[in-house]
Amino acid sequence: MAGLFDKQAEIYLDARPTYPAEWYNMLAELTPHHSLAWDVGTGNGQAAISVAKHYGQVIATDISEAQLKCAMQHPRIRYLHTPLSLSDDELVNLIGGENSVDLIIVAQAVHWFDLPRFYYVPGGILAVWGYKDMKVDPTFDAAGKRWFETTLPYWNAKTQSFFGGYCSLPFPFESVGLGSEGNPLALDIPKELSFEGYMRMVQSWSAIATAKEHGVDLLSEGTVKELENAWGGANVVRTIVYKGFMLAGKVKV
To answer: Which part of the chain is the Methyltransferase domain (predicted)?
Structure first.
């Protein structure tokens, strides 16, 4: 996934939805200690900012320097660039050593990872989550689905488990009541969204950047106009729901 989100790092920061505070409350209640959390694949730090309300320190890592340059700053968050060349031992030492982490989170990113390598994690509770479908109303949902189908050739093969809502994602950890392997917990992310906000969100997709590299504009003027009409107009703010999913488990040490 290296480089997939670099070109649209600033759009990503502005466009992606934040996650409900209740999610972090649920996760914080699972850990007896609240000294250190690790946000893996932090991107611009949207999840790190929220988890910092519950933990003394948050280490937020990403392989994308471009994303980290756009990250939201917080006195309890330490952002670290972790290139793929970093060894497992180097990574564990970087975040404080074995069994040092109370909570490990991965928001909208674990499907990109080398899972056997990543699942060698240094103790604690591991929670991974994502969101995919967005529900607006029958008219826009139908138009959005038709357009989304034109993007399918440009998604990386690693997104297969993501589009399946992590139902097929290997997750060999002890269940803590928030989803389990093969049975993710369904969660909603409600949001007030303008059409401009919707457009910025889809512009941040990796498939849009990949299509451009192949000379294909998935958001032509005609396509955008069709989506805008289905939305109800450029200036209309809609109440929408992102359909989320989570898996959480206890790391065996």
So the answer is: 39-116
